[in-house]
Structures are given as structure tokens and as C-alpha cells.
Design a protein that fits this description.
Blueprint: E1 2-9, E2 15-22, H1 24-31, H2 33-41, E3 46-50, H3 62-70, E4 75-82, E5 88-90, H4 111-115, H5 136-142, E6 148-153, H6 160-174, E7 180-184, H7 187-196, E8 201-205, H8 215-219, E9 224-228, H9 234-242, E10 246-252, H10 255-263, E11 268-271
Parallel strand pairs: 3-4, 3-11, 4-6, 6-7, 7-8, 8-9, 9-10, 10-11
Antiparallel strand pairs: 1-2, 4-5
Helix pairs in contact: 5-6, 6-7
């Protein structure tokens, strides 16, 4: 048996270090999580549609996801929030205002209320109006077998634990765990999800250089680190790969940025416009 240290958080939000024992086989499986996803994709470079094909369709909607597949994405990235009655919906912001004709916090709205909103109303002056906000379950049911899904857990401090639990439940119900990578800036949420499942692929998001190097990756048995283009150079990319992790760079908006990342050794690219491929 191998000893693995996991950080969790109690209800008073104090850090609690717990020791878990994992079998060698389980730990080795953990180190291979992203390679299993890449094996599914069967490609050396992985192109990820940021909120779907959001340059062509309203972000985080079914038409955006369908368009991403059409344009050649290997993976789709989306964001999830939770409604007041516990439904997991696909929406980036904590508020409804920017991307729908609703207003106020997602956490204060019921699914019935959200389901009536127009998620295309603000896209190119309403050119794509009439599109609904999808539930995560809808996306998982639709997800083609050859496409992977990066679920970024958003939520609020009050509901991220419930949101993480609900995301895992829906992934398991859909039977799509082998296609899913769950990521978050909220590493407490990732710790909670790791407590629920030893095998699900997890990725930690960073807005700047992570420190201390690889601490979170090791304690949470991550598959990937998600960083900005400003945070990387060839030495860092090589070090991440040597650690057995993938480096996912977000969000790339120009061909020059993509070319730079490729020259640094990056293999996984999150892009807004998949026509830049």
C-alpha cells in the first residue's frame, strides 16, 4: 500500500490534512488518467473548444458544442453552476445577466426559471436568439463517444460542495467518466471531488504561476495543470510533462499565440476560435 495525503476542508473552512491509503495499482491509474483521455482522442495535439465554439455560436450552449465538434475539436470545455433547487446548468457567470435575458444570481433562480431564458439574446445583437441554457445532464447525454469533455466547476462558496457532488453524480449516471476531465480554480472543490472518486481525471486552474510547484498536483492526484500563456516557457512545459502531467493552456485567441505555445512544447490548447486550427 502507498500513503497519499489529501487536503480536505471542514464546514468551518479550515484546512484538514487527511491521510488516505491507496493501492499501487490505484496510484498508477491516477498517473495515467490524462493519457487515457488522450488515447481516446488518438491525437498528439488536443484542441479544446472554449465554452464550445464560442466565436461562432453563443457560449456554453448546445449549438456551440455541436459546432465545436463540426470544426474538429477533440475536447469541449464548459462551465457549470447550480440553481437554487440543485440543478447543474451550463453557464460561466454566477449571474444570469451577461449571457441571457435574465438577471440576478444563478444560485437564487430555480431550474424552471432558468429553462425559460434565452441564452442567445446577447450574441451578435440577438442573431442567435431562442437558444436555451442547457443542463449538464443534457450535454452528457449528447456527448459523442469520440469527444472528451472538460467540466469547469464554478459555483459559489455556499454551494461548491453540493455542486461537485452533483457533477459527479451526473457524470456517473451518464456513464461518461472515461470521457470527462473536471477542472476548477477552486481547489477545495477538487479535493471534495477526489474524496468522492479516486479515478476521475482532475485539473487545477491557475491564473498565474503556481507555487509551490506540483504540490496541489501531488496531493490531489491531478492529471493536468491549466495555465495562461503568460505563465509558460519551454522549461516549465518540459518540467510539467516530466511530472507525468499535461499542461493545458487557456485561452488562446490568435494564431500567433497558438504557434508560440506549440513551440514551447504545449500539446493541449484551449481556444475560442477553432477555425484557427
Amino acid at each position: 500500500m502507498m500513503t497519499h495525503v489529501l487536503i480536505t476542508f471542514d464546514v468551518e473552512r479550515r484546512c484538514v490534512v487527511q491521510t488516505r491509503r491507496l493501492t499501487l495499482e490505484s496510484r498508477m491509474n491516477g498517473e495515467m488518467r490524462l493519457s487515457r483521455i488522450q488515447s481516446l482522442l488518438r491525437t498528439q495535439e488536443v484542441w479544446v473548444g472554449h465554452r464550445g465554439a464560442n466565436a461562432q455560436m453563443p457560449e456554453n450552449t448546445m449549438p456551440a458544442f455541436e459546432k465545436a465538434v463540426e470544426l474538429g475539436a477533440h475536447m469541449i470545455e464548459l462551465d457549470v453552476q447550480m440553481t437554487s433547487d440543485g440543478e447543474v446548468i451550463v453557464l460561466h457567470d454566477a449571474f444570469l445577466d451577461r449571457t441571457t435575458n435574465g438577471s440576478g444570481m444563478v444560485a437564487n433562480a430555480t431550474w424552471a426559471e432558468v429553462s425559460r431564458l434565452d441564452a442567445g439574446i446577447h450574441f451578435y445583437d440577438g442573431a442567435a436568439s431562442g437558444i436555451h441554457v442547457p443542463r449538464l445532464a443534457e450535454v452528457l447525454d449528447w456527448l459523442p463517444e469520440h469527444i472528451a469533455l472538460n467540466i469547469e466547476v464554478k459555483g459559489t462558496p455556499a454551494n461548491f460542495t453540493d455542486l461537485g457532488n452533483a457533477v459527479m453524480k451526473r457524470v456517473e449516471q451518464a456513464g461518461k467518466k472515461h470521457q470527462v476531465l473536471i477542472s476548477s480554480f477552486n481547489h477545495q472543490a477538487l479535493a471534495q471531488i477526489r474524496e468522492l472518486d479516486n479515478d476521475i481525471a482532475l485539473g487545477a486552474l491557475y491564473a498565474g504561476k503556481l507555487w509551490p510547484p506540483f504540490y496541489t498536483a501531488r496531493t490531489l492526484a491531478l492529471s493536468s495543470l491549466h495555465e495562461t500563456i503568460e505563465s509558460i516557457d519551454s522549461q516549465w512545459v518540459h518540467r510539467v510533462h516530466e511530472e507525468g502531467l499535461e499542461l493545458v493552456v487557456w485561452t488562446l485567441r490568435t494564431a500567433a499565440e497558438i504557434d508560440y505555445c506549440r513551440s514551447m512544447g504545449v500539446r493541449v490548447f484551449i481556444v475560442d476560435d477553432l477555425t484557427l486550427l
